[in-house]
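so my prof wants the structure for this chain in the tokens format not the other one, which i didnt know existed until like an hour ago. anyway here's the sequence
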Amino acid sequence: MIKDSSVGRMSRVVGDSGPERVLIAASFVNRVGNGLFNAASALYFTLVVGLPAVQVGAALTIAGLVGLCAGIPGGHLADRRGARTIMMVALAVQALSMAALVLVESWAAFTIIATVDRIAAAAGGAAWGALVVRVGGDRPALFRARLRTFVNLGVVLGTVGAGAALAADTRGAYVTLILGNAASFALCAALLLLLPRYPVLPAPPRQRRWIAFSDRPFLTFTALYGAMGLQYPVVSLLLPIWISEHTEAPRWTIAALFAVNAAFCVLMQTRIGSRIETPHDGGRAFRIAGLLFLVSCPLMALAAYTPVWAAAGLVLAAIFVHSLAEVWESSAGFALGFGLAPDHAQGQYQGLLGLGFDAGQALAPAVLTTVVLGLGTTGWLLLASFFAALGAAGPPLARWGTRTRPRSGVAAEMN
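here's what i got, hopefully its the right format
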């Protein structure tokens, strides 16, 4: 009985069907590669290739801005040509562009290759969302929560693996990381061959091609989701600067906060996400996330006014609450993002949602460093209030979105 129970728990984590396990494995492999690359990419281009940091930043900004335009067309192609096909093409392009980075010797070449990579990533991300819906079946939000658990785990393992290359600090070590990421894209594409060919769902007759742009509730959610996405750079950018420049907390606290954040998301995503499936659930989860951010941000600010160990304790407590909010926020995004999108246009809708999120991430560094670091404690309190206000909009948005769906979608919501 104990063995059967253990197998059952493992099955619930890794997926209930063959296609689910394939997509989880592909996602995990891809994210391990991302972890390898992301931890060392900036150092490779500045220290090994010799590009000035300003040029690296400019190239990535250009690539990101161009990539923003590819998500919605890529998602529409996924809806009309098949999500698996578009996803595999995007992964193949990323594998080639990533491998080509080891040949970069100039800013122009880096900019072109990075732009191709971002276009493929945006189109592939929209197709990936549509594929999750087909594989996840009746409970795509729960399946996406499982996927995100393994995404987080893959990034953590990849980042740990990158540590060896960072310690070696040689061109060969950095090249190995880049080619390892390229190989992860190729392997991910190969794994998708194991998925069945899901038939394309026909659009209703006389429906507008770009239906997502006329869906006001979803457009509103896209804006809210992109704005709430500022919480991610709080951990990766804002808090490390705040700890090092404004608190007495030991420097190891910065490493600890990343470990706590990653571990908590790995352990809790499926547990919490399994209870958040419908748009109604998603609206409530969005509100809970906002309230938790309302607690975590003042704790981060308070660390500046306490002695060493109290500051470290406050930072760790803050990141614990922040991580809990992150899980609720991402689960809300899955439930609302999938639940408000029609099945035949999931790719287009996920492309629009990705556009909103990426736009928010592009603006986040300037907003956070200017407002929060510039205003100090007042900035943290404004940020906390901002997150809480966004979260409060979740339940009415969910009711509006559900009310304006086609009758079949509302019925499905109530069953």
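also thought this was worth mentioning. The two ends are 33 Å apart (CA to CA).
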